[in-house]
Design a protein that fits this description.
This protein has about 120 residues and is mainly alpha-helical. The protein has 3 helices and 2 strands; from the N terminus they run ββααα. A two-stranded antiparallel sheet has the order 1-2.
Length: about 120
């Protein structure tokens, strides 16, 4: 079932937008994963400045999270630009990679907090 979205600005008046009942999460994934990618860069830079990259596995986990967030950004952008099933497929893969990157970043954060990785 499709429904018509009401235009919120003058530029939206000329182009009707149809949305499916499923929520479109690609813009949210793109925004959040790009922010978390920046945080991963800060963590890696901090590790290099503190000269801790050889002592811990935190930089490897952070690099893995960075790769997952970058691929998630690309796929969510492609999902926004694509229509139909291909866009939905990109969005689903981006969601999975985003959640995997969050889990990887969570492990990194807990490892730093509790000094488990040495």
């Amino acid at each position: 079932m499709r429904r018509l979205i009401v235009a919120k600005t003058y530029s939206d008046l000329n182009k009707p937008i149809f949305m499916d009942d499923k929520k479109n999460t690609s813009p949210h994934i793109l925004n959040t994963s790009s922010n978390l990618l920046g945080i991963c860069f800060i963590v890696l830079t901090s590790l290099k400045l503190l000269k801790m990259q050889n002592d811990t596995l935190v930089d490897e986990f952070t690099t893995g999270a960075m790769i997952l967030f970058m691929i998630s950004c690309i796929l969510s952008f492609l999902s926004i630009k694509s229509n139909g099933r291909l866009g939905e497929r990109y969005e689903n893969i981006a969601e999975i990679l985003f959640l995997t990157g969050l889990a990887c970043l969570f492990v990194t954060t807990m490892s730093i907090t509790f000094n488990v990785i040495k």
